Amino acid sequence: MSSLHDRHRAVIPDWVALYYRDPLEITHGEGRHVWDAEGRRYLDFFGGILTTMTAHALPEVTKAISEQAGRIIHSSTLYLNRPMVELAERIATLSGIPDARVFFTTSGTEANDTALLLATAYRRSSQILAMRNSYHGRSFSTVSITGNRSWSPTGLSPLQTLYVHGGVRTRGPYARYSDAEFIEACVADLEDLLGHTRDVAALIAEPVQGVGGFTSPPDGLYAAFRRVLDRHGILWITDEVQTGWGRTGDHFWGWQAHAEAGPPDILTFAKGIGNGMSVGGVVARAEVMNCLDANSISTFGGSPVTMAAGLANLGHLLEHDLQGNARRVGGLLLERLRGATAGIEAVREVRGRGLMIGIELTRPGTDEADPAAASAVLEAAREGGLLIGKGGGHNTSSLRIAPPLSLTVAEAEEGASILEQALRSL
Predict the structure, then answer these.
(1) Greatest distance between any 2 Cα atoms in the chain
(2) Residue 158 backbone zone (phi > 0: left; psi -120 to 50: alpha; other: beta)
(3) What is the distance, to the nearest Å, from the Cα of residue 377 to the centroid of all Cα atoms in its chain?
(4) Please, are residues 218 and 182 in contact by the beta-carbon 8 Å criterion?
(5) Cα(156)–Cα(152) distance, rounded to whole angstroms?
(6) Per-residue model confidence as pLDDT tens digits over 169-211
(7) Of 184, 204, 334, 384, which residue is 20 to 30 A from 222 by alpha carbon distance?
(8) Ramachandran region of residue 220, left (φ > 0), alpha (ψ -120 to 50) or beta?
(9) Interatomic CA distance for residues 117 and 103, integer angstroms
(10) How far apart are CA 87 and CA 172, in angstroms?
Protein backbone atom coordinates (compact mmCIF):
# COMPACT_ATOMS: atom_id res chain seq x y z
CA MET A 1 0.00 0.00 0.00
CA SER A 2 1.36 3.44 -0.94
CA SER A 3 2.35 5.84 1.80
CA LEU A 4 0.31 8.97 2.37
CA HIS A 5 3.27 10.97 1.03
CA ASP A 6 3.21 8.97 -2.22
CA ARG A 7 -0.53 9.49 -2.53
CA HIS A 8 -0.08 13.21 -1.84
CA ARG A 9 2.48 13.55 -4.64
CA ALA A 10 0.19 11.70 -7.04
CA VAL A 11 -2.72 14.14 -6.71
CA ILE A 12 -1.47 17.41 -5.15
CA PRO A 13 0.44 20.02 -7.24
CA ASP A 14 4.25 19.98 -7.03
CA TRP A 15 4.25 23.62 -5.88
CA VAL A 16 2.37 22.81 -2.65
CA ALA A 17 5.34 22.76 -0.28
CA LEU A 18 5.79 20.23 2.53
CA TYR A 19 8.04 20.62 5.55
CA TYR A 20 10.60 17.93 6.47
CA ARG A 21 12.41 15.19 4.54
CA ASP A 22 9.86 12.75 5.94
CA PRO A 23 6.67 14.85 5.89
CA LEU A 24 4.57 14.91 9.03
CA GLU A 25 0.91 13.88 9.33
CA ILE A 26 -0.66 15.65 12.32
CA THR A 27 -3.66 13.72 13.61
CA HIS A 28 -4.79 15.67 16.69
CA GLY A 29 -3.84 18.39 19.13
CA GLU A 30 -4.55 19.75 22.59
CA GLY A 31 -3.38 22.99 24.15
CA ARG A 32 0.05 23.79 22.76
CA HIS A 33 0.79 20.23 21.63
CA VAL A 34 0.03 18.09 18.57
CA TRP A 35 0.48 14.39 17.81
CA ASP A 36 1.57 12.67 14.59
CA ALA A 37 0.27 9.47 13.01
CA GLU A 38 2.86 7.42 14.93
CA GLY A 39 1.62 8.83 18.22
CA ARG A 40 4.60 11.11 18.87
CA ARG A 41 3.88 14.37 20.70
CA TYR A 42 5.30 17.75 19.66
CA LEU A 43 5.32 21.18 21.25
CA ASP A 44 3.80 23.43 18.58
CA PHE A 45 5.67 26.70 18.06
CA PHE A 46 4.10 27.47 14.67
CA GLY A 47 0.35 26.91 15.15
CA GLY A 48 -0.50 25.97 11.56
CA ILE A 49 1.21 29.15 10.26
CA LEU A 50 0.02 31.39 13.13
CA THR A 51 -3.55 30.14 12.81
CA THR A 52 -4.06 28.15 16.01
CA MET A 53 -4.04 31.36 18.02
CA THR A 54 -5.41 30.36 21.41
CA ALA A 55 -4.94 26.58 21.77
CA HIS A 56 -5.55 23.32 19.97
CA ALA A 57 -8.98 21.81 20.70
CA LEU A 58 -10.03 24.83 22.77
CA PRO A 59 -13.23 23.62 24.49
CA GLU A 60 -15.15 26.88 23.99
CA VAL A 61 -14.46 26.85 20.25
CA THR A 62 -15.21 23.17 19.64
CA LYS A 63 -18.44 23.53 21.65
CA ALA A 64 -19.50 26.61 19.66
CA ILE A 65 -18.80 24.83 16.36
CA SER A 66 -20.72 21.72 17.39
CA GLU A 67 -23.74 23.60 18.68
CA GLN A 68 -23.97 25.86 15.61
CA ALA A 69 -23.51 22.91 13.22
CA GLY A 70 -26.42 21.24 14.98
CA ARG A 71 -28.62 24.24 14.15
CA ILE A 72 -27.57 25.31 10.64
CA ILE A 73 -24.22 25.15 8.88
CA HIS A 74 -24.72 27.46 5.93
CA SER A 75 -27.01 30.20 4.67
CA SER A 76 -24.79 32.73 2.71
CA THR A 77 -24.82 36.50 3.13
CA LEU A 78 -28.18 36.73 1.33
CA TYR A 79 -29.87 36.15 4.69
CA LEU A 80 -29.51 37.79 8.07
CA ASN A 81 -26.89 35.97 10.10
CA ARG A 82 -26.78 36.62 13.85
CA PRO A 83 -23.28 35.19 14.56
CA MET A 84 -21.86 37.23 11.65
CA VAL A 85 -23.41 40.48 12.87
CA GLU A 86 -22.28 39.85 16.45
CA LEU A 87 -18.68 39.13 15.43
CA ALA A 88 -18.66 42.12 13.06
CA GLU A 89 -19.83 44.38 15.90
CA ARG A 90 -16.99 43.24 18.13
CA ILE A 91 -14.34 43.53 15.42
CA ALA A 92 -15.57 46.96 14.29
CA THR A 93 -15.20 48.25 17.85
CA LEU A 94 -11.80 46.62 18.36
CA SER A 95 -10.42 47.82 15.01
CA GLY A 96 -9.98 51.44 16.05
CA ILE A 97 -11.39 52.57 12.69
CA PRO A 98 -14.25 55.09 13.07
CA ASP A 99 -17.65 54.25 11.54
CA ALA A 100 -16.26 50.86 10.58
CA ARG A 101 -17.87 48.26 8.33
CA VAL A 102 -16.75 44.60 8.27
CA PHE A 103 -16.83 42.15 5.36
CA PHE A 104 -15.96 38.50 6.02
CA THR A 105 -14.01 36.28 3.66
CA THR A 106 -12.60 32.76 3.92
CA SER A 107 -8.87 33.62 4.00
CA GLY A 108 -6.26 36.33 4.33
CA THR A 109 -5.59 36.16 0.60
CA GLU A 110 -9.24 36.87 -0.13
CA ALA A 111 -9.29 39.62 2.49
CA ASN A 112 -6.33 41.39 0.86
CA ASP A 113 -7.87 40.88 -2.58
CA THR A 114 -11.04 42.59 -1.32
CA ALA A 115 -9.03 45.44 0.20
CA LEU A 116 -7.33 46.01 -3.17
CA LEU A 117 -10.73 46.02 -4.90
CA LEU A 118 -12.02 48.63 -2.45
CA ALA A 119 -8.94 50.85 -2.67
CA THR A 120 -8.70 50.82 -6.47
CA ALA A 121 -12.44 51.43 -6.86
CA TYR A 122 -12.46 54.24 -4.29
CA ARG A 123 -9.41 55.97 -5.74
CA ARG A 124 -10.07 55.02 -9.40
CA SER A 125 -6.45 53.97 -9.74
CA SER A 126 -4.69 50.65 -10.29
CA GLN A 127 -1.39 51.81 -8.77
CA ILE A 128 -0.44 50.21 -5.45
CA LEU A 129 2.48 50.85 -3.13
CA ALA A 130 3.77 47.77 -1.32
CA MET A 131 6.77 47.01 0.86
CA ARG A 132 9.85 45.14 -0.25
CA ASN A 133 10.06 41.67 1.35
CA SER A 134 6.27 41.58 1.82
CA TYR A 135 3.77 38.74 1.40
CA HIS A 136 0.02 39.25 0.95
CA GLY A 137 -1.41 35.98 -0.40
CA ARG A 138 -1.58 33.57 -3.29
CA SER A 139 -4.32 34.99 -5.56
CA PHE A 140 -3.49 36.71 -8.85
CA SER A 141 -3.89 40.19 -7.37
CA THR A 142 -2.08 39.51 -4.08
CA VAL A 143 0.84 37.74 -5.75
CA SER A 144 1.25 40.84 -7.88
CA ILE A 145 1.80 43.06 -4.81
CA THR A 146 4.00 40.57 -2.94
CA GLY A 147 7.54 41.91 -2.66
CA ASN A 148 9.09 38.48 -2.07
CA ARG A 149 10.28 36.70 -5.20
CA SER A 150 10.10 33.24 -3.62
CA TRP A 151 6.31 33.63 -3.26
CA SER A 152 5.53 35.46 -6.49
CA PRO A 153 5.30 32.94 -9.34
CA THR A 154 4.27 35.41 -12.05
CA GLY A 155 5.15 38.94 -13.07
CA LEU A 156 1.81 39.39 -14.81
CA SER A 157 -0.50 41.63 -12.82
CA PRO A 158 -3.83 43.47 -12.88
CA LEU A 159 -2.11 46.22 -10.87
CA GLN A 160 0.90 48.49 -11.24
CA THR A 161 2.93 47.92 -8.10
CA LEU A 162 5.75 50.09 -6.78
CA TYR A 163 7.87 48.90 -3.86
CA VAL A 164 8.89 51.07 -0.93
CA HIS A 165 11.83 50.80 1.51
CA GLY A 166 11.31 50.24 5.20
CA GLY A 167 9.97 46.79 6.07
CA VAL A 168 13.41 45.38 6.95
CA ARG A 169 15.30 47.29 9.63
CA THR A 170 18.70 45.58 9.65
CA ARG A 171 19.38 45.12 5.94
CA GLY A 172 19.37 47.36 2.89
CA PRO A 173 20.75 50.84 2.20
CA TYR A 174 19.55 52.39 5.46
CA ALA A 175 20.48 49.59 7.87
CA ARG A 176 23.34 51.52 9.50
CA TYR A 177 21.18 54.53 10.31
CA SER A 178 19.63 55.27 13.71
CA ASP A 179 15.88 54.60 13.96
CA ALA A 180 15.09 58.29 13.45
CA GLU A 181 17.43 58.52 10.46
CA PHE A 182 16.00 55.27 9.05
CA ILE A 183 12.46 56.66 9.17
CA GLU A 184 13.57 59.98 7.67
CA ALA A 185 15.31 58.21 4.78
CA CYS A 186 12.35 55.92 4.08
CA VAL A 187 9.94 58.87 4.08
CA ALA A 188 12.23 60.74 1.68
CA ASP A 189 12.25 57.67 -0.57
CA LEU A 190 8.44 57.53 -0.48
CA GLU A 191 8.17 61.24 -1.30
CA ASP A 192 10.54 60.79 -4.24
CA LEU A 193 8.67 57.73 -5.49
CA LEU A 194 5.35 59.59 -5.47
CA GLY A 195 6.94 62.29 -7.58
CA HIS A 196 7.37 59.74 -10.37
CA THR A 197 3.85 58.28 -10.37
CA ARG A 198 0.31 59.14 -11.28
CA ASP A 199 -2.42 58.93 -8.64
CA VAL A 200 -1.83 55.97 -6.31
CA ALA A 201 -4.68 54.00 -4.76
CA ALA A 202 -3.12 52.69 -1.56
CA LEU A 203 -0.10 51.58 0.40
CA ILE A 204 -0.46 48.04 1.77
CA ALA A 205 1.91 46.92 4.50
CA GLU A 206 2.34 44.22 7.14
CA PRO A 207 3.35 45.87 10.43
CA VAL A 208 5.57 42.82 10.97
CA GLN A 209 6.41 40.94 7.77
CA GLY A 210 5.40 37.32 8.24
CA VAL A 211 6.69 35.15 5.40
CA GLY A 212 9.60 37.58 5.06
CA GLY A 213 11.01 36.35 8.36
CA PHE A 214 9.27 38.42 11.08
CA THR A 215 11.05 41.63 10.13
CA SER A 216 9.70 45.07 11.01
CA PRO A 217 10.58 48.76 10.80
CA PRO A 218 11.10 51.03 13.79
CA ASP A 219 7.88 51.99 15.56
CA GLY A 220 6.39 55.08 13.94
CA LEU A 221 7.46 54.46 10.34
CA TYR A 222 3.93 53.90 9.04
CA ALA A 223 2.67 56.93 10.96
CA ALA A 224 5.31 58.98 9.14
CA PHE A 225 4.25 57.36 5.86
CA ARG A 226 0.60 58.08 6.69
CA ARG A 227 1.23 61.83 6.90
CA VAL A 228 2.66 61.73 3.38
CA LEU A 229 -0.14 59.50 2.08
CA ASP A 230 -2.81 61.80 3.52
CA ARG A 231 -1.44 64.78 1.59
CA HIS A 232 -1.95 62.79 -1.62
CA GLY A 233 -5.29 61.20 -0.66
CA ILE A 234 -3.70 57.73 -0.74
CA LEU A 235 -5.27 55.02 1.45
CA TRP A 236 -3.35 52.99 4.03
CA ILE A 237 -4.12 49.26 4.17
CA THR A 238 -2.68 47.41 7.17
CA ASP A 239 -2.35 43.66 6.60
CA GLU A 240 -2.97 42.20 10.07
CA VAL A 241 -3.37 38.59 8.93
CA GLN A 242 -0.41 37.54 11.10
CA THR A 243 -0.02 40.48 13.51
CA GLY A 244 -3.62 40.84 14.69
CA TRP A 245 -5.41 39.85 17.90
CA GLY A 246 -2.58 40.67 20.31
CA ARG A 247 0.15 38.40 18.98
CA THR A 248 2.80 41.12 19.22
CA GLY A 249 1.97 41.55 22.92
CA ASP A 250 2.50 45.30 23.05
CA HIS A 251 -0.55 46.00 20.89
CA PHE A 252 -3.80 44.36 19.82
CA TRP A 253 -3.08 45.31 16.18
CA GLY A 254 0.32 45.78 14.61
CA TRP A 255 -0.67 49.20 13.26
CA GLN A 256 -0.91 50.53 16.82
CA ALA A 257 2.89 50.70 16.98
CA HIS A 258 2.47 53.40 14.32
CA ALA A 259 -0.65 55.10 15.65
CA GLU A 260 0.47 58.73 15.94
CA ALA A 261 -1.15 59.64 12.61
CA GLY A 262 -4.38 57.80 13.36
CA PRO A 263 -5.88 54.45 12.34
CA PRO A 264 -5.60 52.91 8.87
CA ASP A 265 -8.29 53.33 6.23
CA ILE A 266 -8.53 49.57 5.68
CA LEU A 267 -7.52 46.65 7.92
CA THR A 268 -7.38 43.02 6.82
CA PHE A 269 -7.41 40.01 9.13
CA ALA A 270 -7.59 36.20 9.05
CA LYS A 271 -5.72 33.21 10.54
CA GLY A 272 -5.90 33.48 14.34
CA ILE A 273 -9.48 34.72 14.72
CA GLY A 274 -10.88 31.35 13.56
CA ASN A 275 -8.35 29.28 15.55
CA GLY A 276 -8.19 26.91 12.59
CA MET A 277 -11.56 27.64 11.01
CA SER A 278 -11.51 29.40 7.65
CA VAL A 279 -12.13 33.05 8.56
CA GLY A 280 -10.78 36.25 7.04
CA GLY A 281 -12.11 39.72 6.64
CA VAL A 282 -11.77 43.41 5.88
CA VAL A 283 -12.56 46.40 8.09
CA ALA A 284 -12.86 49.84 6.49
CA ARG A 285 -14.49 53.14 7.26
CA ALA A 286 -17.97 53.25 5.75
CA GLU A 287 -17.11 55.75 3.00
CA VAL A 288 -14.49 53.35 1.63
CA MET A 289 -16.33 50.06 2.24
CA ASN A 290 -19.54 51.33 0.63
CA CYS A 291 -17.87 52.74 -2.49
CA LEU A 292 -18.64 49.71 -4.68
CA ASP A 293 -21.46 50.40 -7.14
CA ALA A 294 -22.25 46.79 -8.07
CA ASN A 295 -23.83 43.90 -6.20
CA SER A 296 -21.67 41.52 -4.18
CA ILE A 297 -22.16 38.66 -1.74
CA SER A 298 -20.07 35.98 -0.10
CA THR A 299 -21.17 32.37 -0.37
CA PHE A 300 -18.88 31.09 2.37
CA GLY A 301 -17.53 34.23 4.04
CA GLY A 302 -19.42 34.80 7.30
CA SER A 303 -20.60 31.19 7.55
CA PRO A 304 -22.65 30.66 10.75
CA VAL A 305 -20.24 27.93 11.91
CA THR A 306 -17.03 29.89 11.34
CA MET A 307 -18.57 33.00 12.91
CA ALA A 308 -19.61 31.03 15.99
CA ALA A 309 -16.03 29.75 16.25
CA GLY A 310 -14.63 33.26 15.87
CA LEU A 311 -16.93 34.66 18.55
CA ALA A 312 -15.98 31.95 21.03
CA ASN A 313 -12.28 32.26 20.22
CA LEU A 314 -12.22 36.05 20.48
CA GLY A 315 -14.17 35.91 23.73
CA HIS A 316 -11.68 33.45 25.22
CA LEU A 317 -8.71 35.57 24.08
CA LEU A 318 -10.09 38.75 25.65
CA GLU A 319 -11.36 37.15 28.87
CA HIS A 320 -7.99 35.46 29.52
CA ASP A 321 -5.85 38.45 28.43
CA LEU A 322 -3.85 36.39 25.97
CA GLN A 323 -2.37 39.60 24.59
CA GLY A 324 -0.85 40.20 28.02
CA ASN A 325 0.37 36.61 28.11
CA ALA A 326 2.00 37.07 24.69
CA ARG A 327 3.78 40.14 26.02
CA ARG A 328 4.98 38.48 29.23
CA VAL A 329 5.85 34.98 28.01
CA GLY A 330 7.00 36.24 24.63
CA GLY A 331 9.39 38.67 26.30
CA LEU A 332 10.86 35.88 28.39
CA LEU A 333 11.16 33.60 25.35
CA LEU A 334 12.84 36.31 23.26
CA GLU A 335 15.46 36.99 25.94
CA ARG A 336 16.00 33.27 26.53
CA LEU A 337 16.61 32.73 22.81
CA ARG A 338 18.97 35.69 22.59
CA GLY A 339 20.98 34.28 25.45
CA ALA A 340 20.90 30.76 24.04
CA THR A 341 22.13 31.83 20.60
CA ALA A 342 24.93 34.11 21.80
CA GLY A 343 28.14 32.84 20.29
CA ILE A 344 26.48 30.74 17.58
CA GLU A 345 28.10 32.11 14.42
CA ALA A 346 25.23 31.08 12.17
CA VAL A 347 22.75 33.29 14.06
CA ARG A 348 22.78 36.81 12.64
CA GLU A 349 19.83 38.20 14.59
CA VAL A 350 17.06 37.23 17.02
CA ARG A 351 14.17 39.67 16.62
CA GLY A 352 10.48 40.06 17.25
CA ARG A 353 7.93 41.09 19.83
CA GLY A 354 5.37 39.13 21.79
CA LEU A 355 4.95 35.60 20.45
CA MET A 356 6.19 36.50 16.98
CA ILE A 357 9.92 35.80 16.97
CA GLY A 358 12.38 35.36 14.10
CA ILE A 359 15.91 33.94 14.14
CA GLU A 360 17.90 34.91 11.05
CA LEU A 361 20.61 32.50 9.93
CA THR A 362 23.59 33.25 7.70
CA ARG A 363 26.67 31.42 6.53
CA PRO A 364 29.24 31.99 9.31
CA GLY A 365 31.41 34.99 8.69
CA THR A 366 29.14 36.40 5.98
CA ASP A 367 25.81 38.17 5.53
CA GLU A 368 24.60 35.53 3.07
CA ALA A 369 21.45 33.49 3.58
CA ASP A 370 21.80 29.87 4.60
CA PRO A 371 18.58 28.06 3.68
CA ALA A 372 20.25 24.67 4.22
CA ALA A 373 20.95 25.63 7.83
CA ALA A 374 17.34 26.72 8.34
CA SER A 375 16.13 23.37 7.01
CA ALA A 376 18.62 21.51 9.20
CA VAL A 377 17.43 23.31 12.33
CA LEU A 378 13.83 22.61 11.37
CA GLU A 379 14.64 18.89 11.15
CA ALA A 380 16.65 18.85 14.38
CA ALA A 381 13.91 20.71 16.27
CA ARG A 382 11.37 18.17 15.08
CA GLU A 383 13.60 15.35 16.29
CA GLY A 384 13.67 17.09 19.65
CA GLY A 385 9.86 17.31 19.73
CA LEU A 386 9.38 20.92 18.59
CA LEU A 387 7.62 22.28 15.49
CA ILE A 388 8.73 25.68 14.15
CA GLY A 389 8.45 27.49 10.82
CA LYS A 390 10.85 29.16 8.42
CA GLY A 391 10.80 32.07 6.01
CA GLY A 392 12.87 34.84 4.53
CA GLY A 393 13.15 37.13 1.55
CA HIS A 394 15.94 38.49 -0.61
CA ASN A 395 19.10 36.63 0.48
CA THR A 396 17.73 35.88 3.96
CA SER A 397 16.89 32.68 5.87
CA SER A 398 14.88 32.84 9.06
CA LEU A 399 13.28 30.54 11.59
CA ARG A 400 9.76 31.61 12.54
CA ILE A 401 8.47 31.05 16.08
CA ALA A 402 4.79 31.77 16.77
CA PRO A 403 3.18 29.50 19.37
CA PRO A 404 -0.45 29.74 20.52
CA LEU A 405 -0.90 32.82 22.70
CA SER A 406 -1.71 30.68 25.75
CA LEU A 407 1.90 29.40 25.89
CA THR A 408 3.11 28.85 29.45
CA VAL A 409 6.49 29.87 30.89
CA ALA A 410 7.42 26.19 31.30
CA GLU A 411 6.56 25.45 27.66
CA ALA A 412 8.51 28.49 26.51
CA GLU A 413 11.57 27.23 28.40
CA GLU A 414 11.13 23.71 27.03
CA GLY A 415 10.88 24.97 23.45
CA ALA A 416 13.85 27.30 23.86
CA SER A 417 16.00 24.43 25.17
CA ILE A 418 15.08 22.21 22.21
CA LEU A 419 15.74 25.04 19.77
CA GLU A 420 19.10 25.84 21.39
CA GLN A 421 20.17 22.21 20.95
CA ALA A 422 19.00 22.25 17.34
CA LEU A 423 20.96 25.42 16.60
CA ARG A 424 24.10 24.15 18.29
CA SER A 425 23.92 21.00 16.14
CA LEU A 426 24.64 23.03 12.99
Answers:
(1) 65
(2) alpha
(3) 22
(4) yes
(5) 10
(6) 999 999 999 999 999 999 999 999 999 998 999 999 999 999 9
(7) 334
(8) left
(9) 13
(10) 41
